[in-house]
Amino acid sequence: QSNSSGADLHFALHSNAAGERNSGQVRGAEFYYYPTSTNGERFANILKENYDEVYPVTDRISAIPTTSLAEVKRTSSPAVLAEVAYHDNAQDAQFIRDNLDSIARNLSKGIAQYFNVPFVDPNA
Prior knowledge:
By secondary structure, the chain is α/β, with parallel strands linked by helices. It is 35% helix and 20% strand. It contains 4 helices and 4 strands; from the N terminus they run E-E-H-E-H-E-H-H. The chain has a 4-stranded mixed sheet. Helix 1 links the parallel strand 2 and strand 3.
């Protein structure tokens, strides 16, 4: 988490599961970052703010600090772990299946914004 130049980034893509007690009952998208990483937090918030363009339950999108996930804890680069939706929820699983291109485009736009470079849509 020591690099503050914004010249590098560790970005992990996942889908989430609520666990046995709440399986299928939870929806949402989460963007996890290490709490002392200014650039990780900045990137997580960019993704959170942009994701409401594609995710249907906008009040369930969050940027969350964590010290327990190795994907953000054990990297020297600013890091974000994205949980794009809950694959154990039928509606979220359908959202993922139906929107892979939109999700990829949206997250790519966030990466471009983080690096302050223009986003070129390959489908345009």
